[in-house]
Structure formats: structure tokens, C-alpha cells
Specification:
The chain has eleven helices and no strands. It has about 250 residues and is mainly alpha-helical. α6 (about 95-125) runs antiparallel to α11, α7 runs antiparallel to α9 and α7 packs parallel to α11 (about 220-245).
Length: about 250
């Protein structure tokens, strides 16, 4: 399994998608420079909240979500498209181990650029909120990568031919629109628990009228739910891969 993990990381580094990852991670830094660096002191609570929301939306949701979509949805689909899945599955390794190794490698590949991009923007903006806000944002970002990657990996094994399209629909409609609906449905989204975690750890006060949208779950509950979503997503993806025969484009 360690060999598979190493090979997948090396493959990701050698592909042009690695440049896309770097570009997506770098763009928020340029945006933060445009917004302007300000000193970390003499900043009102309202401004700290605004900059914290900016970092959360741009890095935890946009950067993490887009990169997880790009690599997670292609976890199996890329092997089918490149006609390498038959060779991959002829190895004397259980299919679920292959999925687990590729998932772990993808997360290990994505976490550094996501975390460094967030850290860079936070410093450029003048360290708004200090260590508590940075810790809250970083915790949400670190948990968002495996959670989103797991969901997109599952969607990619279900709809192999349209993995990216299905992933885009999911992140825009489900994680975007439905997560902002102040009803039970938003508690089924990953972004709901990421928001609750960020607010709970940072200690930022949220107005009562948007509390149902942002979420008021405890940090421990958020971590457990996000971990459960990640485990279920990877588990179901591994189960589908173990039981399904995938046709390469030549066979269609």
C-alpha cells in the first residue's frame, strides 16, 4: 500500500494538474494583496469578522473544494480514461487498498498548498483575529480536504464518465445553495459543519439571525461528523470499486 501511495503522489507531481493546483492556491494570495495588507492592531471586531469570513470562503470552501473536486473526482475516472485501470487491478493488491492509497496520496498532495495558501493570505491581511482565528481556519481547511475528496471520489466511482460534471453540480447546488438554507437540509452538508467548527474554535460572535445558517454545533460534534462523512465516502467508493467492473473507452 505504501508503494501505491508513493506512486500516486509521484504521478500527481508529474502531471500538469500539479501546476493547476499551484495556480489555484496562488490566486487567493494575489487577491489578498489587492485587498491590501494592514497592521494587525487597531482593528475593530467587525473588520476582523469580515476578513475571517473572506479567508474561510476563499480558502476553506473555494480553494479546498475546487482542488478536491479536480483530483477527487478523477480518483478512478482518470484510470478509466487513461486505460490504466485494467493494469492497476491486475496487481496482487485488494481493490479497496488501491482506493485507500490513492485517497491518502491525494489528501497528502493537496493539504500543503491549501494550508500554505491560507497561511499566506492570513499574514498578508495582517493576521486578523490572531492565533484563535488562524487555528479555526486551519482546522477547517485541514478537515475540508479529506471530506470533500472522499465525497468527490465516491461521486466519481458512481458516475465515471461524468465525474467532473456531477462534482460541479454537487458543490454548487448542495454545498453552495442548500448549505445556506436555514433548515434541516443544511445540516447534511460538509460546509455547514466547517462553518460551525470555524466559528466555535475562533470564538467570533455570530448575529442571532444568521446563527441557523452558520451553524451552532460544538467543535467536537463537527469533527466527528466530518470524520464520519469522510470515512463513509471512502468506504462506499472502495466498496463500489471492489464490486464493479469498469469499461475503458475502447470497450464502450
Amino acid at each position: 500500500m505504501a508503494t501505491l501511495l508513493y506512486l500516486h503522489v509521484r504521478m500527481l507531481l508529474s502531471e500538469k494538474r500539479a501546476w493547476i493546483v499551484l495556480l489555484v492556491a496562488a490566486l487567493p494570495l494575489l487577491l489578498s494583496v489587492v485587498i491590501g495588507r494592514r497592521g494587525p492592531t487597531h482593528r475593530g471586531a467587525e473588520e476582523v469578522t469580515e476578513l475571517s469570513i473572506y479567508c474561510f470562503v476563499v480558502h476553506v470552501l473555494a480553494v479546498s473544494g475546487l482542488l478536491s473536486l479536480l483530483l477527487g473526482s478523477s480518483l478512478v475516472a482518470s484510470e478509466v480514461e487513461n486505460r490504466t485501470i485494467t493494469y492497476l487491478f491486475t496487481r496482487p493488491v485488494a481493490r479497496w487498498r488501491i482506493v485507500a492509497a490513492k485517497f491518502t496520496a491525494t489528501c497528502a498532495f493537496l493539504l500543503p498548498p491549501v494550508a500554505l495558501s491560507l497561511l499566506g493570505s492570513w499574514f498578508i491581511l495582517g493576521a486578523p483575529g490572531g492565533a484563535p482565528v488562524l487555528g479555526a481556519l486551519m482546522a477547517s481547511a485541514v478537515l475540508s480536504v479529506p471530506a470533500y475528496t472522499a465525497v468527490f471520489a465516491l461521486l466519481g466511482t458512481i458516475a465515471v464518465a461524468r465525474a467532473l460534471v456531477v462534482g460541479i453540480v454537487y458543490i454548487v447546488f448542495f454545498e453552495g445553495f442548500l448549505s445556506l438554507v436555514p433548515a434541516v437540509i443544511n445540516s447534511l452538508t460538509i460546509s455547514y459543519y466547517l462553518r460551525s467548527l470555524a466559528v466555535g474554535v475562533s470564538g467570533i460572535e455570530v448575529p442571532t439571525f444568521i446563527e441557523r445558517i452558520v451553524g451552532n454545533e460544538s467543535p467536537a460534534s463537527c469533527v466527528m461528523v466530518i470524520a464520519a462523512i469522510t470515512a463513509i465516502g471512502v468506504g462506499l467508493a472502495a466498496l463500489i470499486v471492489s464490486r464493479r467492473e469498469f469499461a475503458t473507452p475502447d470497450a464502450v
